[in-house]
Design brief:
Elements: E1 5-6, H1 8-18, E2 25-31, E3 34-40, E4 48-49, H2 54-67, H3 94-98, H4 113-123, H5 132-138, H6 153-167, H7 171-179, H8 216-219, E5 222-223, H9 225-237, E6 250-252, E7 256-258, E8 263-267, E9 270-278, E10 283-289, E11 294-300, H10 307-319
Antiparallel strand pairs: 1-3, 2-3, 2-11, 4-5, 6-7, 7-8, 8-9, 9-10, 10-11
Length: 321
């Protein structure tokens, strides 16, 4: 297996921590004194699916829209979308979506998620691909449960498109306006570019690209490792839009807490804000230890978790500060 390219120090750490289980991957570490990138099996401009790290961006877009007075936490979906006749979903508030306490299911039953998941497992197909109009129609008549902590892709799809609607833009246009033109949200496979890579299962089987307008705010963003490095630097500097998204406001799944999308857990006595991502053939992770002044990103085009890798990289480089 060829060696890692990039910063020597980070390449050595990445090769040791990721080993041979992630043959196509890229990592970045950012500190107050600079940044480092290393990659294996891909060029520097490779476009990765970042999966649910997209929710971190969506939470920040929501927080910025709230800061600008375009929405409030109590703004409902019915105030931003044509949801007449859709039932209780029209009364769901944006704040509840941002902390996964909306009472919405993970996905709309009308989407037939189990059928799509089976086709993903069997044929490697993209289980998404819907337009925003199709998503809103699938949401018709959804039963809204009690407000409890329950992870919802549907919730973040709606949150992101709601923030965009309040801004008078599409989600992709709002994302690129606030975070930069380097981010892409392919709606169809025709929107992929030559530098976009495809992921695989843990056994090397190819997976179709996860594309779709509706998916974008919850898991449809593509970015390079350099783009994610630069984003992490702005988060550490406190200059990224919607920084309030990183501040935890609710409990979430045991010992963790959640802001707007961003999850916070205590490591080495310090809060770490993070999010992971997973699509058909990608696993990703981002985390920032703002007290230590260190951030890390891991992007892998293989269906194996990189959560422990991300936390180890963050801990190792924080210890060197």
């Amino acid at each position: 297996m060829s060696s890692w390219d990039g910063d020597d120090d980070l390449a050595a750490a990445a090769g040791r921590i990721l080993g041979s289980r992630h043959p196509v991957a890229a990592v970045a570490v950012v500190t107050s004194s600079g940044s480092m990138v290393a990659r294996h099996g891909v060029p520097e401009d490779a476009g990765f699916e970042i999966g649910s790290i997209s929710k971190a961006f969506t939470g920040m877009l929501f927080c910025e829209a709230r800061e600008q007075g375009l929405v409030s936490g109590s703004t409902t979906l019915g105030e931003l979308f044509p949801l007449d006749g859709h039932g209780d979903i029209s009364s769901v508030a944006l704040q509840s979506l941002s902390v996964h306490r909306s009472g919405l299911p993970s996905l709309p039953p009308a989407m037939q998620p189990w059928r799509r998941t089976w086709r993903l497992w069997r044929h490697g197909e993209n289980p998404y691909g819907d337009t925003l109009a199709e998503l809103l129609e699938q949401a018709r008549g959804i039963s809204v449960g009690r407000p409890r902590s329950a992870y919802s892709n549907l919730g973040f799809q709606l949150l992101g498109h709601a923030a965009a609607a309040a801004s008078g833009l599409s989600y992709e246009a709002l994302l690129r306006e606030r975070f930069g033109a380097a981010y892409r949200v392919p709606a169809t496979e025709a929107d992929l570019v030559p530098t976009d890579i495809l992921g695989t299962t843990a056994h090397g089987r190819p997976r179709a690209a996860w594309v779709g307008e509706a998916l974008a705010p919850a898991g449809g963003i593509r970015a390079t490792i350099g783009t994610m490095r630069d984003f992490t630097a702005t988060v550490l500097a406190g200059t990224a839009p919607g920084m309030a998204a990183l501040d935890p406001v609710e409990s979430f799944q045991g010992i963790m807490r959640i802001g707007a999308g961003w999850i916070t857990v205590t490591r080495a006595g310090r809060p770490v804000a993070w999010h992971n991502g997973g699509t058909g053939g990608f696993r990703t992770w981002i985390g920032v230890d703002r007290e230590a002044g260190v951030g890390a990103v891991v992007l892998s085009a293989t269906e194996r978790s990189v959560d422990s890798v991300g936390f180890r990289l963050l801990k190792e480089f924080a210890a060197r500060r």
